[in-house]
Amino acid sequence: MKRILIITTLFLSTTSALKAQTIKIFYEVKAMGYIIYASSNELYPVSISLDMQLSNLTFSEGEKKVFVLPPKSEKFKIGEFSAIDRGHGYKFSYKYISTLGDVTITHYDNSFDYDLPFQKGKSYNVYQGYHGAFSHQDENSLDFVMPEGTEVFAARGGIVVQVVQNNSESCSTEECKKYNNYITVMHSDGSFATYAHIKYHGSIYILGDSVKRGEAIAYSGNVGWSTGPHLHFVCFLGAFGKWNTLATKFRIDKGAESIFLKERNTYLRDY
């Protein structure tokens, strides 16, 4: 019996400034076929989309192409390939893309009221708002004008799942996106918040730490794709190609009122 396995080059997707996921797909031989597994060392769920080419094989999961790996998956079973005609050879090949988060999430807590990501008694201007013309086209993200070294506070509690803080370069063009520093927090409903352009070694927390709403988590900076000192905040769900960024309401003034923040307006946090 002739068996052939062809594994094509694996492609990892990167969206915005965040890093690609560390994913491994592997297999075990079974009688007349293979069992396919995946592993992920990430602290968050990772979604993968498989493009498979099969010859004389059936896939136990039928036409399913998208699979979600739980955090810290050592041997997550994707499915099995089984020979159709046992008298002939069989083979398969595949390629895949991956992205941060569970792309199958359709419901999240869209009623949650976020805290402004800075200290009580302070007010900052939203230089660029949702769908801003400079770099927020088709994106629900916010830029707060903020001096370097300003304490950044968690707008919502969760688990720290990404920290990049080793960059110090910046420029006003997109080519410097690769130098962005950031901290990403995963929320209980599967959404994420990224606080970007933090200063060199500006994260207060490390991977895996739990943070509470209203706790200081980082120091703002002027690193990466930046025209001046500011904090970039974006809340999102994972998706292939481009994240599903979320418009979120923030508590303002004394915290009794929650609104969608508007570009060029200044907001006070007094709670």
Summarize the structure.
The protein has no helices and 25 strands. The protein has 271 residues and is mainly β. The relative contact order is 0.19.
Give your account of this protein's structure.
0% of the residues lie in helices and 48% in strands. The protein is mainly beta and 271 residues long. The protein has 2 domains: 3-100, Sandwich (Immunoglobulin-like); 113-268, Glucose Permease (Domain IIA) (Distorted Sandwich). A hairpin with a 5-residue loop joins strand 15 and strand 16 (192-196). 34% of the residues are buried.
Helix residue percentage: under 10%
CATH fold label of the largest domain: Glucose Permease (Domain IIA)
- Radius of gyration (Å): 22 Å
Tell me the strand percentage band.
Answer: over 45%
Unreliable segments of 5+ consecutive residues? 1-18
How far the N terminus sits from the C terminus, by CA atoms, comes to 72 Å
Task: Give the overall shape, derived from the CA principal axes.
Answer: elongated
Oligomer kind: single chain
CATH architectural designation of the largest domain? Distorted Sandwich
Total of DSSP H or I helical runs spanning 4+ residues: 0
> What's the count of strands?
25
- Within CATH, the superfamily of the largest domain carries the name Glucose Permease (Domain IIA)
Give the H and E element order: EEEEEEEEEEEEEEEEEEEEEEEEE
Average pLDDT reading: 90
